[in-house]
Amino acid sequence: MSDSQFDYIIVGAGTAGCLLANRLSANASKRVLLIEAGRKDDYHWIHIPVGYLHCIGNPRTDWLYNTAPDEGLNGRSLRYPRGKVLGGCSSINGMIYMRGQARDYDQWADITGDARWRWDNALPYFKLHEDHHAGANAAHGAKGERSEVLLADNTVYGETLRHHIAGGEWRVEKQRLRWDVLDAFAQAAVQAGIPATDDFNRGNNEGVGYFEVNQKSGWRWNTAKAFIRPTCYARPNFELWSSAQVAKLVMTNDEDGTQRCSGVEVWTGHGYVTVTAKQSVVLSAGAIGTPQILQLSGLGPAELLKQHGIEPVIDLPGVGANLQDHLQIRSVFKVQGVQTLNTLASSWWGKAKIGLEYAFKRSGPMSMAPSQLGAFTRSSPDQPYPNIEYHVQPLSLDAFGEPLHSFSAFTASVCNLNPTSRGTVSITSANFADAPKIAPNYLSTEADRKVAADSLRVTRRIAAQPALAKYKPEEYKPGVQYQTDEDLARLAGDIATTIFHPVGTARMGRLDDAMAVVDPELRVRDGRGGVVRGLRVVDASVMPTITSGNTNSPTLMLAEKAAQWLAHEAEQA
Which residues are noted in the entry as FAD-binding (predicted)? Predict the structure, then answer.
């Protein structure tokens, strides 16, 4: 910890924070501090793809959150993993590269009143950092394949910016394995009316196919590898503080009465250090950590803050509200005459084969993402667009972290892509070390319960197709005795779990939107029609609505936009 003053302070070295640190420190005249509460990503299980099993629930890499008991889950509480390590959730997540649907970003533009968030204006920012295995084309970017991308949406400073791109840092590859039972499920999905696809990331992800993943030659590719090493470490204007937790923001008043964030107060493990930022503090602590830090700093719902003895600086009722997440409903089918991981890993010899394949080829089950096959479709014919997503796995178990079943089986997990249920994140004390209360309020609307019931019927329809018949699928969970909407919705509450996609708790919106936390350029609102100077939020918490798929890559896109805004803002100062 060499200094106490920087140009930029980035709170959270996760998905967004690592990209921001890379982009902002590219200007050698700007000193950038990146603060991470967790340790560096030098734990070997981070980098072996199947190592997520050892990272989730491990204090070395996980915040170890749990949700409050949830009425929609029939009183159950869920484990709620969040990455506490360099790379954040990109170091422990499922590695699936998924942008969502074009309509997601068009909806953001409608909510914010800002066309710069439309799909056509978001796509170039996905391509800026992408290194796609198939090379550069209209939908993808690739390292070393120079292309010109017109960023026509950026009119912040009255000019159109043109970037010459020679490819990005974020590696996207095909998976290095296949399973007969998953191939059969894909064929069954086609027979059930879901088209085959080889690319979920062109704006309409309807279809069935193997997921593409953020891996490089069979290793996990996290944002620390992509954006921090070796680039940032070689820059003298970049500094990383790990095992350092931000306790609160430092808020001050300018001479004109405008609120400013001038820095942060950091707990180092030995004491508090106050660090100041000449340009901006950027909160990238995630959909749980960001609202917690804002509330601890006096920015949040005034009544909540007063309950915990915190003097409100700005009454922002939207801080911690609007929590959205994807809830997956896990259906398990026993099968016969086909290998699954249950049987392959049931003996020491099978486990040895798995280990040897990975050691010599970097392929096989140890290279597996948590889900290999994906499908996007409609829960019922009256849905105007694909509204459910499948994560299909050649294995089964009672719950995450428990042993595999002794019988051969596959799991077809299905989630509602656009839930209408909304939850909250709220501090439980004025102590930064105390975990916040996470209350997702799953299945709290009739619409979500209806989608849950309908999606289980879609799963059954796929399993009944001829392509799977040779394996004699038998529904083990939830069980064919449950048929009515009421039965299936209640069963969803019994067996569903999170896919770890929390967003929305510091959402963006128009300046006159009382529940918006940040404006369309991700600057924190001051509650009086303006913005707090020197403070932005850049992570999944700013999403006004959840994207139709996995949320890691959309977070990188919005960080790419924010980095450009921050850089040009500094040029104009």
Answer: 85, 246
